[in-house]
Design a protein that fits this description.
mainly alpha, 9 helices, flat
Length: about 230
């Protein structure tokens, strides 16, 4: 029962993210930019601290936009008439988004500007130099795209049902990452079996259809394959 309540809490939270993506144009723009920045970061020699700052900055922009959306929804629930205090609340919330967005531009400038001159010299051996970073970024991109597709198709819940299967996408993303990072056939085989078991369990429990699982598996596998193959 306690586990179910925890899962429900995650569902409600992700539903909030999906609602913001579906209803807020700026939120969709933030997510697209986040994917582009995360993908671009693969080709730069970023330190762990720079990756951390980048992730925190992206999170701040998205959090600010979500808080702005929730404030607007609350005010619209309370009154549909013009009120000076309502205007102030909405403007302040929008100002917070602006501050976080400007901050993200400054952070991107500081992190990426000096490295742009050396792009041609840092495209080689990135996986070998930063396997943890590449794997984490791949999983993050797959997760963001899975949530975005669920918002687009508007069916199921974030952690149960819907197109595509996020569990299948992440499990096959991990499988492809292991293929590139491990030379041990046994480990690769075991990882593949685990990915298949995840997919099979989603179908067996009637949480996803075969097509939803198939699309999720292809999404996770192809995106991760593209990222790793591009580096190699």
């Amino acid at each position: 029962m306690k586990t179910k309540r925890i899962v429900d809490s995650f569902n409600y939270a992700i539903e909030g993210i999906i609602y913001a993506i579906k209803t807020q144009r700026n939120m969709r723009i933030h997510f697209i930019i986040a994917v582009i920045v995360l993908f671009s970061s693969i080709f730069f020699n970023l330190s762990k601290m720079e990756i951390l700052v980048l992730l925190i900055t992206i999170a701040l922009v998205i959090i600010a936009e979500m808080i702005n959306t929730s404030i607007e929804a609350t005010i619209d629930l309370i009154t549909d008439k013009y009120h000076e205090l309502a205007k102030i609340a909405k403007n302040v919330a929008a100002g917070a988004v602006l501050v976080s967005a400007v901050n993200s531009i400054i952070v991107a400038y500081i992190i990426f500007f000096d490295k742009l001159d050396n792009v041609s010299n840092i495209w080689i051996d990135k996986v070998r130099d930063m396997p943890i970073h590449i794997t984490f970024i791949s999983l993050l991109i797959v997760t963001i795209l899975s949530i975005g597709m669920k918002a687009y198709f508007k069916n199921g819940t974030p952690l149960k049902g819907g197109m595509p299967s996020g569990h299948a996408a992440i499990s096959f993303s991990i499988f492809i990452a292991v293929v590139f990072l491990s030379r041990n056939t046994l480990i690769i085989t075991l990882t593949f079996i685990l990915a298949i078991l995840v997919v099979q369990s989603r179908i067996e429990a009637e949480i996803h259809s075969f097509m939803q699982v198939l699309v999720g598996s292809l999404l996770g596998a192809l995106i991760t394959l593209f990222i790793f193959q591009w580096i190699y």
